[in-house]
Amino acid sequence: MLAMNVFDAAIERLKRLYEANHTVVVSYSAGKDSHVCLELAIIAARETNRLPVHVVMRDEEIMLPGTYELAERTAQRDEIDFH
Q1: 83, 57 Cβ separation under 8 angstroms
Q2: Which residues contact 55 (CB under 8 A, 6 or more apart)?
């Protein structure tokens, strides 16, 4: 059995990257997987005083209903540097 769960392991791994002074960039599609990665990065960046999180999104032009709106709301968050 592992000493920690997957959530805590992901946060710790991201925190190590921030603490090593790496630039972390989240590739964002506004889908569930990339949004979870973004939220994990925000938590780790906040805990290491490295906000805002750098986010890059490539516009695919064809998105499911609500996806573009979620991306717009996400881009407006103060803890995100959205490109």
Answers
A1: yes
A2: 25, 26, 28, 38, 74, 75, 80, 81, 82, 83
pLDDT in tens, the chain (83 residues): 568 899 999 999 999 999 999 999 999 999 899 999 999 999 999 999 999 999 999 877 777 788 888 999 999 999 999 99
Both tokens assigned to 6: 């997957």
Distance between terminal CA atoms of the chain?
40
Place of tokens 């805990």: 47
Which of 60, 62, 53, 59 minimizes the C-alpha distance to 82? 53
User: How many angstroms separate the Cα of 34 from the Cα of each of 10, 20, 45, 77?
Assistant: 14, 23, 16, 16
